Amino acid sequence: xxxxxxxxxxxxxxxxxxxxxxxxxxxxxxxxxxxxxxxxxxxxxxxxxxxxxxxxxxxxxxxxxxxxxxxxxxxxxxxxxxxxxxxxxxxxxxxxxxxxxxxxxxxxxxxxxxx
Amino acid sequence: xxxxxxxxxxxxxxxxxxxxxxxxxxxxxxxxxxxxxxxxxxxxxxxxxxxxxxxxxxxxxxxxxxxxxxxxxxxxxxxxxxxxxxxxxxxxxxxxxxxxxxxxxxxxxxxxxxxxxxxxxxxxxxxxxxxxxxxxxxxxxxxxxxxxxxxxxxxxxxxxxxxxxxxxxxxxxxxxxxxxxxxxxxxxxxxxxxxxxxxxxxxxxxxxxxxxxxxxxxxxxxxxxxxxxxxxxxxxxxxxxxxxxxxxxxxxxxxxxxxxxxxxxxxxxxxxxxxxxxxxxxxxxxxxxxxxxxxxxxxxxxxxxxxxxxxxxxxxxxxxxxxxxxxxxxxxxxxxxxxxxxxxxxxxxxxxxxxxxxxxxx
Lengths: 115, 362
Fold this sequence. Notes:
The structure holds two protein chains of two kinds. Chain A is of the alpha+beta class.
């Protein structure tokens, strides 16, 4: 199965500065381990919400809203797409991630019948 | 004790869709224990190949390595539900198993009184004490060594496939049997015999060098592609595609490509599998009937897998492997993948690639 990991890093999601070199090195080491295990399909980091837009749908009406957005805890700072055999496997990998704060959401991707 | 460990593996290693109903009947009071067991199952999935690989190199055979790894799993099943999962579960399992391995080697030695092995024992004891370092540095080599041993040409193709899925893929015998639609006893026998054959042939757990390397690598790739094809064009059963097997093969391919990134054909086979797998969703019609390539709804092709496949193909070509058999097949598959409609297919290039394939096999 495929799972999407959404990294809700709290304050760091909105930080204009990049993580410290030490934090980056730790992250890269962990990501490397995942890649070597054949788990990572894709990974990416997002700009802070100050550079983001939202489009609200209301019937035929569309409203574009400029960032930044207030709900810091819910803002996604980065994502992974993983290929794993179970949600439990995803959880066990995720627990090993070198983060000290934030909430990471694990969502299974809907795939075609029989997958 | 053995049944506990095999049941623990069994729960986690379901290759097909899980039976969701079976979880509903569990009592609430057991939920903490159940949760720990599920975590242990998942950890086993992640760690078992590396565990078996490290142990096989120590004790010299896959059968004993697997038993030691499973003993460590049983110890985890006894301790973790009460004490919690350790911070580095892989290191814990490896440490536990290595201590047992050292005991085993000592016992063997007392029996055999082989003086020349004493030096090795001291070395192993030191290694056992320095488990964390060993895990970080040698895992890649050990795992590759295990993969090359499991895919050794001394074994029949069927045996190579079975033992690779078992010790490298971490599947249970039951799961392999289910995936290949053969009786459990058949797979079980195949694995037992394969282990014995490898031990009798004194197959070493290492990546061969020199002239042997190419032939042995070809055997590894062949096993991966056999697994993939059994999923992609199943030779038995009513489901003519079994995507779970494709996923296992892709995972193995991606692992090997990371472990030996300089071998072009490894990227060639990964490219081929990624691109073929990108069409899995479009190959089956609404009534389960096969849909031919040119009739497929290309909007249903998996763009992520296509992109990964094209990137892997580029890596193979950059390493000078454009004419390798898997890279050539991947290049042909890529022509289809790049065409947004069937009419846009670059047929002259496909013909040229087929000519190149013919020339390389003559």
